[in-house]
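To illustrate the input format used throughout this study, we show a single complete record. The first block contains the structure-token representation of the backbone; no residue identities are included at this stage. The design step must infer an amino acid for every position from geometry alone.
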């Protein structure tokens, strides 16, 4: 899990670098949108896994 997250961060850093060095504005915006969407999806995934873990490990739910 940790290694996968680190890999995703490295990919995002690379995407940002490409977006900064790219002169094509339309492509730049697309890469930025892709980056934001990916970050948002990662956040949702982590949030829901945390909520599920909390819900199922809660003593009141047994």
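Output of the design step:
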């Amino acid at each position: 899990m940790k290694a996968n997250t680190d890999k995703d961060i490295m990919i995002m850093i690379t995407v940002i670098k490409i977006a900064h060095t790219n002169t094509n504005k339309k492509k730049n915006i697309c890469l930025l949108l892709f980056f934001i969407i990916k970050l948002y999806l990662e956040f949702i995934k982590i949030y829901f896994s945390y909520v599920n873990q909390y819900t199922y490990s809660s003593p009141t739910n047994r």
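Structural context for interpreting the output: The chain has a mean pLDDT of 75. Residues 25-57 form the longest helix (33 residues).
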